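example protein:
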Amino acid sequence: MTSLETKERSLGRGELKVLADLSKLLGIDKYFQGEVTLQGHDPILKSPHHLSEATAYALLAEAMAAVSIANLGGAKANSLSINVTDAIHFLHSSHFLWQSGYGMTVGAEYIPTNGIFACRDGKHIMIEAGPPYIKLERGYLNFFDCGNNRDSIAREIAKYDGEELQEALSQKGLPACLAYTKEEWRAHPQGQELLKVPVIEIEKLADGKPVPFKKNEGLGPLHDIKVLDFTHVLAGPRSARTLANYGAQVLHISSPFHMDTLPQNLLVNPGKHSAYLELNTGDNLTAMKELARQADVFTTSYRPAVNARFGLTPQELVKLNENIICLTINAYGHSGPWQDRPGFDQNAQVATGFAAKEGERLDGPQTPQFSPVFYLNDFLTAYLAAAGVLSALIKRATEGGSYHVKVSLARSAMWVQDMGYIEKSVYGGQREKDTYPAKLVDVQSPFGTITELAPAVQFEHSPLVDILPVRPFGADKPVFWR
């Protein structure tokens, strides 16, 4: 181990307060049996934020929740550990993905329409079209009537005042947010809404009888759980992949006309069957609702308006299935004036003031900057979401009822901010990029050999299972298979 990995802190000794608070929020402190240790500490990158520790806490929370389910089934106590360098890789696992030896990064950081640009009034605005998604990319280029390169986009954005442009783009359904400071964001109406809620919300939807877990020795603590995965991009699908890692039967549903990219599929959809349902046709929507009746968990990362259009909101789903756990993931939170606005990981970094603080690592003029690994919220939110679902399943098993788990990209960024800041004199000499050695595994799949990160959390008695290799979109029938 490196010197950064040698300082060990323990949950049992009261040295991991953030994790202790998270486990109490989730209610798993009452069920988890075992010890948890974290090796190392921040900073390990040139950043004022506790990036590796935040990632470690989120990964440990989901692992503790899974172990708690196993403990409820009579499994023995289980000790967990993680080190900071393994954790930091999982903040940007998209950069540790190869297909048959070729790098398969999602590549959003290289798209001209994705970035922070200066406005006429000196403010900065963040726009993003994702990997890119053609509808969003065309939307920006048509709005600005310019070429698809950063110079042309920057020239056009410089003709607008920030607030004016933010609202004009948002009204067209295009992701856009000004670069606020932490203080500005928390005074903003949307920031104020997020301050009212915890990083993971678990809301009871309806009463019901307890649904205990079945004992499945060697098959994973979630072997009897069916998950209907109606998600896209990264945070949503990655959260459902985590459930598959613990044995859940996960069926991913997408449209044949609006697929994510190949790197996204390879990264976040192992462990699942993958089926098409074009929900704009009546028969397919009927089939989707029948799957929801059979599911234990329904996950979605589409905007509320999309779910409402198809009758797939938590309030409507619980009428179909009184025992369902619903997970919704969005950009800016589930109430407030921005609850319907689209946004990606980096939009949330910029809006919340995270990027403004990252700008302080520059030696010259300070402008908003993304995290040193580009990502922050997608993967953190995925791990927190999975922890929330696992905890809601525990509530269903012990108390009964159906539950709505709510997480958002912006609230995850605020959670990281709340851990406090590291002084520049301390982080200034650290690495600009994550060049620490990574533990990798090879998996055989229909796409050839997939190389990816090995699990970061080490279990004394692992509840993880061998999962299905990633499958092509639409390769399977829209049915649960066991």
User: Anything to note?
Assistant: Residues 40 and 47 are 16 Å apart (CA to CA).
